[in-house]
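---------- Forwarded message ----------

FYI, see the 7tm Odorant receptor record below. Original note from H. follows.
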Amino acid sequence: MQRVYSLTLLFHYFVTLLTGCSDLYELLIRKADVSYMIVMIISLMFIYVQFGYYAVPADIVASEISDLSNSIYMSEWYKNSVGVQKQVLFMMVRSQRRQYLMGAGMIEINIYAYGSVIEIIRAEKCSIALFFITDS
């Protein structure tokens, strides 16, 4: 699953940052009528929601994988034969490693990444950076 969604997750992470920053910059800098401002606010909300549709399920999948180790441990695995115990022990050790979806191996996609995107878009640094990019 990581291999299939890796580039898609990275793409949406950066597209959310770029479009969110540019929309917020345009909303704050451009002198426009109220209807245009409402359209821009709705656009920002949909940008947040779109990335949330990727980040929240990725976080749920990661937590379900980590719950697998606890479920196996709570079962009565130790009452089985030694061969089964070894296999179950291997499964428990393997499932204890933290599993998460990454955007091309660079960015962990989860609830924290979603929050960081919102913070970066809201930050004044985003508007200042876009101001210097468009000014030169």
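H. also flagged this: The mean pLDDT is 78.
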